[in-house]
Specification:
Elements lengths: L4 H9 L4 E3 L4 H4 L5 E4 L3 E5 L12 H7 E5 L6 E3 L4 E11 L4 E7 L1 H4 L3 E2 L6 E2 L4 E10 L5 E3 L4 E9 L36
Antiparallel strand pairs: 1-6, 2-12, 3-4, 3-6, 5-11, 6-10, 7-9, 7-12, 8-10
Length: 193
């Protein structure tokens, strides 16, 4: 069952769902989702002359990205064919009986901006800001302003709460993340030396 606005408000009031800061609930809470805003931090992928990125090498990934901070009221220009990591302004906490999906807003999709390549699922038990995989599929640059509503999160109730939620006991790599996070795929069991 997907939560409606009434369900979302009730669960936020009880502290079961955390979205912080939720500065304008009347604007941000939609009929069956919550709009999240763009944060100020971005990880830009550098143009470089390396043959490839090896997923098991943290050093290569670190050399390939650089952090950019853009204050609210300023603009981050997302150029055609660019891919950057951004973040939501809000920190979320998902209870063990819900799964959440982050989606782009249709108004931005109509400008050819997508907010995730593959990472649209937010697991039960997750806490932290959400990393956005921002791409411009269009032919013109698009200005993104920190604080603008960039995505929406949809909550679906699980038939039963998960017994093993996302978190440290599972070895989850992104729990309590702040700001956009580069890939930590090198920590996956198949890459451990």
């Amino acid at each position: 069952m997907i939560l409606s606005d009434a369900d979302i408000r009730r669960r936020i009031e009880k502290g079961e769902i955390v979205i912080d800061p939720l500065d304008d609930p009347d604007l941000q809470i939609q009929p069956a989702s919550v709009d999240l805003r763009l944060g100020e931090e971005f990880l830009e992928f550098c143009r470089t002359n390396i043959p490839c990125i090896h997923p098991n090498s943290e050093d290569e990934v670190a050399k390939y990205v650089r952090k950019t901070t853009v204050k609210e009221g300023e603009e981050f220009i997302l150029h055609p064919n660019d891919f950057v990591l951004g973040t939501t302004k809000e920190r979320v906490e998902i209870p063990p009986d819900l799964i959440a999906h982050v989606q782009g807003r249709s108004s931005l999709g109509r400008l050819a901006v997508v907010i995730h390549a593959t990472a649209g699922v937010i697991d039960p038990g997750y806490r932290g800001q959400i990393t956005l995989e921002l791409s411009n599929l269009g032919t013109a640059p698009v200005a993104l302003t920190p604080g603008m509503r960039i995505s929406q999160v949809i909550f679906t109730e699980l038939k039963t709460p998960t017994k093993n939620p996302y978190g440290k006991s599972r070895g989850s790599k992104y729990q309590d993340q702040k700001g956009p996070q580069a890939s930590k795929i090198q920590l996956d069991p198949e890459f451990k030396k």
